[in-house]
Amino acid sequence: MPLFESMAARPEVVGIGEIGLDYYYEFSPPDTQMRTLSFFLEMAARLNKPACLHVRDKSGESRAVDDLLGALRPLAGRLRGVVHCFSGGLEDARRILDLGLHLSFTGILTFKNASALRDVFARLPADRILLETDAPYLAPDPHRGHRNEPMFLTRIFTLSAGLLRLAEPDWSDRLRLNQTQVFGRACA
Ligand SMILES: [Zn+2]
Known about the structure:
This protein is an alpha/beta fold. The protein is built from seven helices and five strands. Helices cover 43% and strands 12% of the residues. β4 (102-105), α5 and β5 form a beta-alpha-beta unit.
């Protein structure tokens, strides 16, 4: 698919994604998803552009995460990127960080029933975290269930600063740096 690569190589393209594995909806069979994912991961590494990664399992399973890590492992050190909308456990978080990737968090972090995720978050290194809206989905509390807007990101920002015990100006500076490390100056 040389057309993808020539388009992706353009300077205004700051990342490759979302790409990844969704075994929850399973719109296509896992082996087809894996082949497609590998194609785009290798392209991202060749072009030196970050990958925006989606991964979702059926509840109680971890096949998608395992397969994603398997696809990423051969590219460790050659690929930067972010696993977006992370809501997994500490073990999965560490496995992803070990491959040199960043983790991005949405409004889920603010949900009343997400205390386990907040516990995980509080134990992560601040220099490997990004925040995102995933708008129009996943509006943070107290807007949960309604259309998400970029302005609600402040809810996630404030809560996450508290979890990491960082002053908000320091956390803001850190996030800007993290963002630059993944996506470069164009998005800072
Ligand atoms: Zn996604």
